[in-house]
Structures are given as structure tokens and as C-alpha cells.
Design brief:
single chain; 81 residues
């Protein structure tokens, strides 16, 4: 028996043992419990977070531009004529 076949066979048997073990059921149950727990929390997806971060950055840029424009207009209004 060549070593490659031996290791492939061993890996297959280990994978089969893991699939048939209670560990697989525990993993499924833990995933299910975590999914339910996260569903109860007020969480957002990464995509939603990234979109809101972009909106916030654009809003901040507009606010900075408006603040600069306001300062310019105030300076013109305060200047003696």
C-alpha cells in the first residue's frame, strides 16, 4: 500500500468517525443556539455597517464644507464696508 493511499484512507476514516460522533451534533446545536442568540440582539450586517459609514463620511464632508462657507459669510458680514 502506498503512503498516499494510506493517508487518504486514514483521513476518510477520521472524517467518517467525526461525522458519526456526538461532536457533530454538539456543533450543530451550538451553531443553532448562537444564531438564535444573535437574532435577538440588535445587530447589523457588515454590509449595512459599511454603507452607513460611507453615508456618515459624505455627511461629514458636507458639514465641513457648510461650516467653512458659513465662516466665510460671517467674515464678510463682519467686515467693515
Amino acid at each position: 500500500m502506498d503512503m498516499n493511499n494510506f493517508f487518504n484512507d486514514l483521513q476518510g476514516k477520521i472524517n467518517q468517525a467525526i461525522e458519526n460522533s456526538p461532536a457533530k451534533d454538539i456543533e450543530k446545536n451550538v451553531k443553532s443556539m448562537m444564531t438564535q442568540g444573535f437574532a435577538k440582539l440588535d445587530l447589523v450586517t457588515r454590509e449595512e455597517f459599511d454603507i452607513q459609514a460611507q453615508v456618515l463620511a459624505k455627511t461629514r464632508a458636507k458639514l465641513d464644507a457648510l461650516e467653512a462657507r458659513l465662516a466665510e459669510l460671517e467674515a464678510k458680514a463682519a467686515a467693515p464696508k
